[in-house]
């Protein structure tokens, strides 16, 4: 049942878990520095999702008039329209050509009024490869090092079967993309929606036209393809919600378990519209730079939409630490 859920804190308490997360944040800062060196960059960028594909500040999320009563929480009300900023990215911590097999991400910042906002972060694969934050950070640390020793180090850290699962999970998500407008994105972790846990996802418009595969083969192919698409028409997605059912089929703490459509069918509740525009022109590139400078975090949310689960709880500290490092490099060096 949706009210039969709980969170389990690593180490047995929120305080102990938070200390563990502080240590993990330091490891991710080391990963961030390793990525900077690989990229040959003067300044660190995001530890992950470093390369922006495209970003706009003039999107709109329109809530359905027939929004189910149980989902009418906070700013999600029937017929409401929320201004939104949207950033699409490649998942790698090292910027690389768009045609390179990779996961893709989207961050949506909703303007909830009175200077407050709500960040929704998603990736185009339904689950995380990692079950929890410790596994995520240890995997990232190993992957940022010598790739010839990667499998041996993973097996040493996690055991043979779990190392194999991690590598296979990553491989499934790492693929080329024909168009960012054709990708589906999932939150991969739960959040509170009023009093019940949910996961959310973005579904591409069923009427979106296809794109030639080779468009993404160029260095900025995904941006160019989206620019061509937006020069002619709006780009739309449907926002959908999946309800928590039970720890068996929709676990809160294990980020590597998919909430399948069989276990919890997606309920569409709103339309995200990116209006027709020129994202390659001067104004479009200025808009992209401004949004790319924002530090998105699932904890940028009203209390009614608090992130849930180990991976999400870690993101508050880990994202904050790595964001300070790329937004304020001088301050980061002093601390």
- SSE run: HEEEEHHHEEEHEEHHH
Strands, total number: 9
Largest sheet report: 9 strands, antiparallel
β-strand percent reads 15-25%
What level of helicity do the residues show? 25-40%
- Helix/strand-derived category reads alpha+beta
What spatial form do the alpha-carbon principal axes imply? Answer: globular
> Which consecutive residue ranges, at least 5 long each, have pLDDT under 50?
331-335
Average of the residue pLDDT scores: 88
The end-to-end distance, rounded to whole angstroms, is 46 Å
How many DSSP H or I helices? 8
- CA radius of gyration: 19 Å
Sum up the structure in keywords:
single chain; alpha+beta; nine-stranded antiparallel sheet; 21% strand; disordered C terminus
Structure, described:
The chain is an alpha+beta fold and 335 residues long. Helices cover 31% and strands 21% of the residues. It is built from 8 helices and 9 strands. Strands 1, 2, 3, 4, 5, 6, 7, 8 and 9 form a 9-stranded antiparallel sheet that branches. Helix 1 runs parallel beside helix 2, helix 1 crosses helix 7 and helix 3 crosses helix 4. The C terminus is likely disordered.
Task: Describe what is shown at a glance.
The protein is of the alpha+beta class and 335 residues long. The chain has eight helices and nine strands.
């Amino acid at each position: 049942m949706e009210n039969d859920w709980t969170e389990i804190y690593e180490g047995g308490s929120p305080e102990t878990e938070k200390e563990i997360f502080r240590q993990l944040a330091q490891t991710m800062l080391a990963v961030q520095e390793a990525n900077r060196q690989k990229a040959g960059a003067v300044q660190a960028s995001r530890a992950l999702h470093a390369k922006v594909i495209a970003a706009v500040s003039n999107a709109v999320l329109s809530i359905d008039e027939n929004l189910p009563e149980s989902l009418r929480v906070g700013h999600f009300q029937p017929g409401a329209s929320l201004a939104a900023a949207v950033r699409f990215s490649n998942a790698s911590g090292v910027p690389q050509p768009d045609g390179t097999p990779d996961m893709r991400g989207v961050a949506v910042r909703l303007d909830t009024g009175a200077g407050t906002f709500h960040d929704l972060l998603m990736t185009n694969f339904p689950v995380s490869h990692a079950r929890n934050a410790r596994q995520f950070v240890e995997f990232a640390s190993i992957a940022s090092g010598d790739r010839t020793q990667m499998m041996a180090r993973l097996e040493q850290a996690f055991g043979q079967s779990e190392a194999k699962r991690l590598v296979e999970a990553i491989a499934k998500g790492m693929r080329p993309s024909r168009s960012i407008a054709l990708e589906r994105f999932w939150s991969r972790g739960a959040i509170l929606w009023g009093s019940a846990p949910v996961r959310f996802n973005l579904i591409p418009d069923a009427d979106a036209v296809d794109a030639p595969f080779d468009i993404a083969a160029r260095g900025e192919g995904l941006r160019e393809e989206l620019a061509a698409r937006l020069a002619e028409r709006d780009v739309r997605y449907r926002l959908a919600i999946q309800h928590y059912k039970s720890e068996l089929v929709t676990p809160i703490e294990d980020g590597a378990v998919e909430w399948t459509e069989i276990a919890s069918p997606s309920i569409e509740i709103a339309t995200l519209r990116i209006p027709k525009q020129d994202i390659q022109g001067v104004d479009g590139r200025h808009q992209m730079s401004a949004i790319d400078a924002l530090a998105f975090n699932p904890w940028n949310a009203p209390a009614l939409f608090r992130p849930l689960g180990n991976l999400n709880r870690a993101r508050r500290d880990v994202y904050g630490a790595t964001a300070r490092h790329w937004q304020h490099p001088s301050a980061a060096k002093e601390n």
